[in-house]
Amino acid sequence: MWPFRRRRKEQARPLGEAEAYRRSYGESSQEVRVIKLPPRLPRDKKVLESGEVLRRAFLERLERRQRGNRNNADG
Fold first, then answer.
1. Could you give the count of Cα atoms lying within 13 Å of 49 in the half-sphere of its Cβ?
2. pLDDT per position as a tens digit, 2-19
3. Fewer Cβ in 10 A, N or C end of the chain?
4. CB 15 within 8 A of CB 23
């Protein structure tokens, strides 16, 4: 027999968004309104492609810098 037995904690059930809000902020007031936003516009593929090119160039530059630092530390 164990002198200090711990009771198992009951596993909490997942809360929905409305219940979580109610627990955090209390009942809703008339000052808070829920609005539905229109769907987002499709993203411009040219902008996404140019951002990816920029990201890859940045990573390549970082790699060159790190390789340069390793060579300088060895020499």
1. 3
2. 667 777 677 778 888 888
3. N
4. yes
